[in-house]
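In these records, each integer encodes one residue's backbone shape. Here is one protein:

___
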Amino acid sequence: LEHFERALSMGRALHGDRHPFLADTLCNMSTSCCQLEQLERASDLLDEVLTIRREVYGEQHALVADVYHNQALVRAQQERPEEEYALHCQALELRQALAGEQPSLAVANSLACVAGCLFAQGELAAAQDHYLQALAIREELQGLQHPETAATLHDLGVVSKAQQQFSSAVSFYKSAYAIRCATLGEHDMNTLLSLGNLGDVQLLLKQSKEGKHNLQVAAEGLTAAGCPTGEFYARLLAQAAAPADANKKGG
């Protein structure tokens, strides 16, 4: 952060207060402030970035949409969900207008972000629709074998489970797991999260053998990696085993 402060001071001296270089430096400073949990300062810096970029590029520019997106991420850290959602919607609307009929990864990113907000609001059908739109773009531009495609499939699994569409959830999780195995490796935490979620839904569908196996593999791998979700999967596994143990004792 200290280096950015020096660069900013030099930039102001050389270029004045309304130069694209300053906006880029301020944006980088905002990212550092977020990492340091200096969220109010990060927000103020992004407000200045937005002012500069509007003056330099106008309202209808991709770099302006990027600021809306980054502001939304700060609001998420600040736990201000209504503002987060509004800013993601602003970014999405502008990115869609700029992309026109052409598929755009920036649009896909904003669709996924809006979907996440909608899911948190309990708007499951709308969240699913936005994730499906994001998936279609990712499959076209990034292909089926890409971690971002897998991430969207995983998110669709989460939404489908919440809607009690368990068969669809299994299909989405299986696809996400297969892609993550191929692109990230079977021991990657994201891969194991897809596997664990798959096992959870399989138990709900009474696919006990597959579900228990997948939960066990995920629980062991995530626990070894220090991820607390591993303990959650272990508890699910124990709960699934409890009725079977009780039946054995009763018999």
Observations:
- The longest helix spans residues 229-250.
- The chain has twelve helices and no strands.
- The radius of gyration is 22 Å.
